[in-house]
Amino acid sequence: AQSVTQLDSQVPVFEEAPVELRCNYSSSVSVYLFWYVQYPNQGLQLLLKYLSGSTLVKGINGFEAEFNKSQTSFHLRKPSVHISDTAEYFCAVIPSGGSYIPTFGRGTSLIVHP
Amino acid sequence: SQTIHQWPATLVQPVGSPLSLECTVEGTSNPNLYWYRQAAGRGLQLLFYSVGIGQISSEVPQNLSASRPQDRQFILSSKKLLLSDSGFYLCAWSLDRGSPLHFGNGTRLTVT
């Protein structure tokens, strides 16, 4: 079984500041990793994914994430946030074999202040 | 390209009334289909998933049921709604293990 821990339920930050949203996972098998963003009253939208290869993954809207196998982490970063980045962010893992069911973290609310 | 349609966007229903939420996927075949519920301020709870027509797996015992009458159609139903069924319902699809889930825009259900 897998588990995903998003260490911060809420991250307040000022506009144009850098931000890091943390995600740690636990799994007995290899996993694929994903970050999603959810704006109010909308579905989840894929930001980026890590399947294999380079551990630094770039996604949409200027976000990037780094897979660290030894620390079982997949933290999401952006060097300069905008007001429009205010949203809920979810980290998710899917086992590379077996079940098709993803495991989601509980989400981190990013609040960007002017 | 693939698209997912989920309707209605919002729904207000009295306790004890039936429910039917529909989700369809276009532009792909034999997708994996999922129903999630998101309570206010909480994460995602997987309700049902399906890997093929007529194949439904339930993740939690509850007042809801799901059906997949066609390859790209996934329906969430209830015979009698409870207050606790209120929430934001999300349909999603994926293809294989390495592919991410793609979500619909959700249905906001309020049971009064």
Structure description:
The complex is a heterodimer of chains A (114) and B (112). Chain A is mainly beta and 114 residues long. Chain A is built from no helices and twelve strands. The radius of gyration of chain A is 14 Å and the shape is globular. Chain B is globular. Chain B has strands at 3-7, 10-13, 19-26, 32-38, 44-52, 55-58, 65-70, 73-78, 87-94, 102-103, 107-111. In chain B, the strands form two sheets. In chain B, strands 2, 4, 5, 6, 9, 10 and 11 form a seven-stranded mixed sheet that branches. In chain B, strands 1-3-8-7 form a four-stranded antiparallel sheet, with no helix packed on it. Chain B has no helices and eleven strands. The interface between A and B is medium-sized, with 24 and 23 residues.
Q: What is the beta-strand fraction of chain A?
A: over 45%
Main sheet specs of chain A? 6 strands, mixed
Shape of chain B: globular
Secondary structure category of chain A: mainly beta
- Mean pLDDT across every amino acid position of chain A: 94
* Spatial gap, N to C terminus of chain B: 38 Å
Q: How much helix is in the residues of chain B?
A: under 10%
Count of DSSP strands of chain A: 12
Stretches with pLDDT under 50, minimum 5 residues of chain B: none
Number of helices of chain B: 0
